[in-house]
Amino acid sequence: MSREPMGLRESKKQETRQLISDHATRLFIENGFESTTIAEIAAAARVAKKTVTNYFARKEDLAFDHQDEFVQGLARTVAGRSEGESALAALRREFLAAVGLHDPVIGFSGEVFARMIADSPTLVARLRDLHDQREEALAVLLATETGAAADDIVPPAAAAQLGAAHRVLFQRIQELTLDGRSDERIAETVTVSAHRVFGLLEGSLGDYAVK
């Protein structure tokens, strides 16, 4: 019996995962996150309930399908910063680039999706948790990059400030989205806000974790 190439198997898995996620999002929007069951999602996607839970360990994961990228994003940006670039400069540069792309990872989700999150206490709590995880991942990376001792408070303190900047800007994008603003208008507003927010950190973190 010939073996199916790994690339094709992985592609099929990704297609199934995306299919389930798409149906779940549609049902969440139509019926509300809290009211939608895993069984209903499985039926809509025409897969077994077990298949849904194999791909998504938690119901919230079906709504936040970019969560791994979200949690690791700040740490990856700092790890990949250019020679002579600080952590703050790298994160500011990457955020402004993401604004230009209307990247959903930083909050550009569309009014319907943003409303779905805002209307669900479970999703609001999960989003808060993901922000916390992102900050923790950044703290670990900063400690490694700066060679800090295990009990050094500076990396987690720096990560808290940098994470808070991104958290505030994410919330601002969500607020503007719920107000019915277009992505273009949101991008214009948030670009100005980002320069102000990151500028506030320049005095304390402008020279921190320079590569």
From TrEMBL:
UniProtKB keywords: DNA-binding, Transcription, Transcription regulation
Protein origin, superkingdom: Bacteria
UniProt key word Magnesium: no
Gene3D superfamilies registered for this protein in UniProt: Homeodomain-like, Tetracycline Repressor, domain 2
Pfam families on file: TetR_N
Residue ranges constituting the HTH tetR-type domain according to the UniProt record: 14-74
Annotated DNA-binding residue span(s): 37-56
GO molecular function, one term: transcription cis-regulatory region binding
Protein name per Swiss-Prot or TrEMBL: TetR family transcriptional regulator
Organism expressing this protein natively: Streptomyces agglomeratus
Organism taxonomic ancestry: Bacteria, Bacillati, Actinomycetota, Actinomycetes, Kitasatosporales
